[in-house]
Amino acid sequence: MPHMYMLFCRIVHAPFFNKTVIGCFVRIGIGKNKEGRSVYRVKFNYIPNCAAQILDVVETAKVYQLENTRTNKGLKLKHGEEERVYRLEFVSNSEFTNQEFNKWYDAMKSNNLAILTIDQVEKKEVDIQKAVNYNYTDKDIELMVQEKMRFQKAPLNYALEKGNLIKLKRRNDIACKFAVKKWGK
């Protein structure tokens, strides 16, 4: 399964983006410390190194670069009872540590909040696999081009962009076939 940041970069303009990511968990990177090590934090009560669940996808005031595209999407995150919006550009590409999971678990328990069930986790995993293996239709491509155009700095060559998206679709199809062979899903 791809790391969340890479998944976001691939599907940020897809029509199913919100449905796919809501309910997932992310780790937020906020920079480097004095020793040059990455610092990960979701500033809920200033607790460092915490996991947070995505509650919603919202539009932020800032348009920003996310790999090779631009967006204004933000994630409404929750850790325990605390909520905050972060831009996708701050999502970490690394996995949670046991300590980070335990902090999330403790925050949920101490606030008497429901813990995810195995069924909920498995359903979300299926949603992610559907997104990874999705075969884009012409209508999907048109919608994605329109979404990308909202954030362009300069006028867009529509035909060129559509051609690029079709090439990306073919690469995605090849990558999915490779993934099925490698992981058997």
TrEMBL record:
Q: Which InterPro entries match?
A: Plus-3_dom (IPR004343), Plus3-like_sf (IPR036128)
Q: Where in the cell is it found?
A: Nucleus
> Which PROSITE patterns does the entry link to?
PLUS3
Q: From what superkingdom does this record's organism come?
A: Eukaryota
Keywords, A to Z, come to: Nucleus, Transcription, Transcription regulation
The answer to whether the entry has keyword Transcription regulation is: yes
Which Pfam family is an annotated match for this chain, by its short name? Answer: Plus-3
Gene Ontology MF: a single term: DNA binding
Could you confirm whether the keyword Manganese appears in this record?
no
The record's Gene Ontology cellular component field reads: Cdc73/Paf1 complex
Cite the Plus3 domain residue spans from the record.
1-133
Name the PANTHER family on file: RNA POLYMERASE-ASSOCIATED PROTEIN RTF1 HOMOLOG
The protein's name? Plus-3 domain protein
Organism lineage reads as: Eukaryota, Metazoa, Ecdysozoa, Nematoda, Chromadorea
